[in-house]
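New to this. Please check both lines:
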Amino acid sequence: MKYSEFERIMSAARMSRYVLACGGNTKKAMTLYRLNLRLSQELFTLISCFEVAFRNAIDSHYTRQLSPDWLLDAVLPGGIFDTPTCRRTANVIRTGHTRISAHYTHAKLVAEMDFGLWRYLFAQPQFRAGGQTLLRIFPARPKSTPAIQYNHTYVFNELANINAIRNRIAHHEPICFQATRPLVDSTPVRQQYALILYLFGWMVIDEGALLYGLDHLPDVCQKLDSL
């Protein structure tokens, strides 16, 4: 496809960053755009696996600690999230329940919740409301040091990075550039990839076995860096 047609379909505004990063070489810009799509596909696959494993670990923990219907119970009158400090979390759960109310099951409600909901269970109000036990889903979590406290706030902040790049992919934004400049750089993606593997380790999940046949991200990063 000629670049003029590619740009007409994708828009000049969207392609301008790629063209600039490629020094005005439009053919190379199209190659970079396609590589960004591959990179997004690869990373989103890994994030999806992590998200499901992460939410299932939380669900299993609170099912044991609270009740088999803990998520819905949490927003009923007197529930753990039925408080002013957890109002937004409660509203997200109630909205999800409304969407599936005619066919409600706990498993369906769990599936309705987005990554942000699970992340916010490590925010201070929600973590405290849940009994301050949720770090138990990470049995291999490192011991805290004076320099780094591996507590719920650390987890909350690290998950924000995964959530941010997940949302960029979901909204078709590029992930192949440096954060503030139109320079091709796989470093941000490699950092989130390493974080996902790190957190799998905390959950004592064999990420190599889980992601067998799915994880091609380092190869795509290498192609990006050599473009």
